[in-house]
Amino acid sequence: MAEIFPEKEIMYEDEIPGGAHWSMLMRKGTTLRLIDKDGGANVGMLFYNPNDKLERYNAPDTLKCQHTFKLTKGHCLYSDMGRIFCSIIEDSVGWHDTVGGNLTNANMEKKWHVKSYQQERNDWTLSGEHSFLVELAKYGLSERDMAANLNWFSRVFTDAEGNLNFDPENSKAGDFVDLRFELDTLVIFHTCPHPLNSAAEYPKKSLIYQIRKADPVTDDDLCMNFRPENQRGFQNNAIYHLQGGN
Predict the structure, then answer these.
(1) Distance between CA 240 and CA 218 in Å, rounded?
(2) CA 26, 20, 131, 112 torsion-angle sign
(3) Which of 124, 96, 85, 78 is nearest to 34 (CA)?
(4) 223-243 exposure pattern, b = at least 16 Cβ within 10 A, e = fewer
(5) Cα 13–chain centre separation
(6) Which of 105, 115, 120, 150 has a CA that sits 20 to 30 A from residue 11's CA?
């Protein structure tokens, strides 16, 4: 059951079962902690500016301006306007996937037996594609608005032949990542399997999430100073806030 403590460090906590989806508005100056409850979780996620939903998470810019293939502590997540949605201020995992994509309905049918809601009720199986579309529709968005997503707790690596491989042991029970929000941000996410997961049965791994109060950003902030590009991203945020953006 969700717990609400608006005056405490952890203001809100809830659990999302595996194979489910959710969305929420995260305010500037708050932190979203994602916790892998049982180990082996995958959390697909997208970000949008709630005041102008044409502004959304940009995976290529996030990677190239920070010279990385993965996401971990110190990295920032960029919009397609050069602003920073959030910063990764803590991370016990060390590697989060940015290139693996999303589980489609077609791939889910190839990999696992599909269980419908009419037959299985809450034990039905959902794809990441279906999950994103349901949450996007709540805000007047559709398939055309679905950008490239990231996958928290998952690791994809290349072998000697250049093939992409999925690491099923990347995240352990209790692992977490903290996202400090630098802009008001619409967060869309699901707990459906990673598209490269080769488990014999459809994996359902639960997520615990907490909304926390964030400490103010200081001049020696790790994320802001991780790359010169991040300093410019924070400056873009400052200009946006000066002009009345949230």
Answers:
(1) 19
(2) positive
(3) 96
(4) bbebbebbeebbebbeebeee
(5) 17
(6) 150
Residues in contact with 156: Cβ distance below 8 Å, sequence separation at least 6, in sequence order: 97, 99, 100, 164, 165, 166, 167, 194, 196
Cβ–Cβ < 8 Å for 106, 114: no
Q: Report how far residue 32's alpha carbon sits from residue 212's, in angstroms, rounded to the nearest whole number.
A: 6
Residue 145 is classified by DSSP as: G
Tens of each residue's pLDDT in the chain, 246 residues? 566 666 678 999 999 999 999 999 999 999 999 999 999 999 999 999 999 999 999 999 999 999 999 999 999 999 999 999 999 999 999 999 999 999 999 999 999 988 887 786 777 899 999 999 999 999 999 999 999 999 999 999 988 888 899 999 999 999 999 999 999 999 999 999 999 999 999 999 999 999 999 999 999 999 999 999 999 999 999 999 999 888
